[in-house]
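User: Sequence in, structure out. Go.
Assistant: Echoing your sequence, followed by the structure tokens.
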Amino acid sequence: MNQFLNTAIEAAREAGAIILAGHARPKEIIYKGDVDLVTETDRKSEAAIVARLRRDFPQHKIVAEEGSAKDDSAASFVWYVDPLDGTTNFAHGYPCFAVSIGLLKDGEPIVSVVLNPVTNELFHASRGDGAYLNQEPIQVSSVASLGSSLVSTGFPTHKRADNLNIHYYWEFTLRSHGVRRDGAASLDLCSVACGRFEAFWEFGLKSWDTAAGMLIVTEAGGKVTDLAGGPYQPGGPSVLVTNGLVHDEVQRVAAEIAARPARF
């Protein structure tokens, strides 16, 4: 396990240095669609991570956001790589973005690393060994009610008019201590893991958005399901991440919202 974790940390650090260098100079932005963008830094970061993983684990499959590791074969070990989670933030100079690297074995997360290169906060977890922030153990908060909770969510960059999350955002804003929307899902999950947030929900995230963070949350004592309370797999249609104590309450509120007629 240490070999997997050590490689993931080294790859994240290397990618983080690339991102910081890109953060300090003008951005070269390319649009993948009407509003979904990618920068040259995304691609350089991904290339460095993929090269490191290929060198150390040539038999492993890699699923990476920008598509530099195309592999449709079946494999027991699969790495999920988001080389720059929060690209929109990065492109606008907003310092909330991360490198996210997660390893699954037979569909189960076993190693995770998330690095915020601006704050130099490195979160990591190995299955059964707990979760850590800069080598110090972390755990979820002890807040037990939604009304006392700070929660988080996100919105897609595409098909915004088709996304009903605005209704959830409205309701949770009224029922919680506050809702944050920082634009980097991997960091949102890590914020649940270290007790900054009590809950996070979102729709339509990709596998590389959550594969690392979900293990960090569960190893910190939290809970990860879909929004209906069922099992969650990276890339599922919805995700609910909490400290465990408010999970049922958040889930009940989400069910109430889902049962209402759509207003647009």
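User: And one key feature?
Assistant: The CA atoms of residues 7 and 71 lie 20 Å apart.
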